[in-house]
Specification:
Elements: E1 7-13, E2 18-24, E3 30-35, E4 42-43, E5 59-63, H1 72-82, E6 99-101, H2 105-108, H3 116-124, E7 143-144, E8 154-155, E9 158-165, E10 168-177, E11 181-183, E12 189-191, E13 222-229, H4 235-252, E14 253-254, E15 264-269, H5 278-298
Helix pairs in contact: 1-3, 4-5
């Protein structure tokens, strides 16, 4: 599948189950963001706010490694700078690369985190077609369904989805590292907290009541989303699209936006077609983001004792 003229590249450490994923944007791409998680890890996201004058985005980087993984954006900066891409300044162009991270240290034990070299490699690997899903890039070490404890979790991953209506394209990518369960359209669990006998724990605990946890366990979960369209959106509309993308988290993840999550959505508009009513784009985006979240777990492969749906 294509991704609204945006190229996507992964760099993955299969040894340490971590990685990063870059979205390389065509010239003139406008970006927006909505951060609703209480413990996000991010870089350059303040530039996307509607009151900031810079509106164009050159790339978005999503990385594992918790806050250490923000270093992967340095590699993206170098890749773009070598090609003269960035916001004009009198001395040299400055690439605009907003970034966000997920906490995926459970498998690696923190012995390796994505770095600038991995970020650069992700750019070299970027393609507009046939982008891998599952345990790749930023999705390599993520998990879902941790509301009852890490031992009940299942493997999350990187997922994508898209819809085309006439000339309009709306695309989404998600890395699913949620404390909540990922659910189907009807609310049934697709992947999430499982008991030792393989039953969904939510069947006996409808409200998914969290056990008491030490403060250190807060903020170790995050779902990150990039939703894109080829429609022309100004910066205000791009930020509104990022807001609407959070509707999909509430649809596809139960619960979402908890004290334990750092949920963040990016929106990108490449303006390759003429005017489309905003609500048409946004309504489609909710469905597409929800499907990308579900595809993230559908393509996930088992790691150690953490089961994935794809194996």
């Amino acid at each position: 599948m294509t991704f609204c003229d945006i190229s996507i590249g992964h760099a993955t450490s299969h040894e340490y189950h971590t990685g990063c994923t870059v979205f390389l944007c065509p010239e003139g791409t406008i970006g927006g963001i909505d951060i609703r998680g209480p413990a996000p890890g991010s870089r350059e996201t303040a530039l996307l706010a509607v009151d900031k004058p810079i509106k164009y985005v050159n790339a978005v980087m999503l990385s594992g490694g918790s806050a250490f993984g923000l270093a992967a954006a340095d590699g993206v900066m170098r890749f773009l700078a070598e090609r003269g891409i960035g916001h004009y300044t009198p001395i040299r162009p400055i690439p605009i690369v907003p970034a966000a991270i997920v906490y995926d240290l459970f498998f690696s034990r923190g012995n390796f985190t994505p770095n600038a070299e991995m970020g650069y490699a992700a750019c070299e690997n970027a393609s507009a077609n046939d982008v891998a899903q599952g345990n790749v890039g930023v999705g390599a070490g993520v998990t879902v369904g941790k509301w009852a404890g890490f031992e009940t979790s299942m493997k999350g991953g990187f997922g994508m989805a898209s819809v085309e209506v006439a000339e309009l394209e709306v695309c989404a990518a998600a890395v699913v590292n949620s404390v909540g369960d990922v659910v189907n359209d009807d609310g049934s669990v697709l992947a999430g907290a499982r008991s030792k006998d393989g039953m969904w724990i939510s069947q006996s605990d409808r409200y998914r009541r969290f056990p008491e946890r030490p403060p250190a366990n807060l903020g170790t979960n995050t779902t990150l989303v990039v939703v894109a369209t080829n429609a022309p959106l100004d910066k205000i509309a791009a930020n509104r699209l990022a807001q609407r993308a959070h509707d999909a988290l509430a649809v596809a993840i139960r619960p979402a936006h908890t004290t334990h999550d750092g949920d963040t959505t990016f929106a990108l508009a490449t303006a390759k077609i003429g005017h489309v009513p905003f609500d048409v784009v946004a309504n489609i985006a909710v469905d597409v983001v929800a499907e990308a979240i579900r595809n993230g777990v559908r393509h996930a492969v088992t790691v150690d004792n953490v089961r994935g749906l794809a194996s």
